[in-house]
Amino acid sequence: MEEQLKEIMGAVFNVDPSVIDENTAAGDLEKWDSLHHMNLVAALEEAFDIEFDEEEMLSLMNYKLILLTLQEKVQS
Q: What domains are defined for the chain?
């Protein structure tokens, strides 16, 4: 799941997935703006066959939180 998340984030933000680590946050990637954030949400929902509610979408502002949220949603 972690590698897939990095691949998706790399594709959405047009960066090499290897630059994404557990400390990566919205302010670290130049293209992480509101439009790209929504593209990330859509890509994650499609890849993992899940749906985020509005509160979750707003909280997905760094790699750690995204991974934790994904793990919770996929396991439930």
A: 2-75 (1.10.1200.10)
Tens of pLDDT, residue by residue, the chain (76 residues): 999 999 999 999 999 999 999 999 999 999 999 999 999 999 999 999 999 999 999 999 999 999 999 999 988 7
Which has the closest alpha carbon to 7: 36, 35, 47?
Answer: 47
- Asked whether 45 and 51 are in contact (CB, 8 A), the reply is yes
Which ranges constitute the DSSP H helices of 1-76?
2-13, 34-48, 54-59, 63-75
How far is CA 31 from its chain centroid? Answer: 13
Q: Is the dihedral of CA 33, 39, 43, 49 positive or negative?
A: positive
* pLDDT the model gives residue 75: 85
The token duo for 37 is: 């954030």
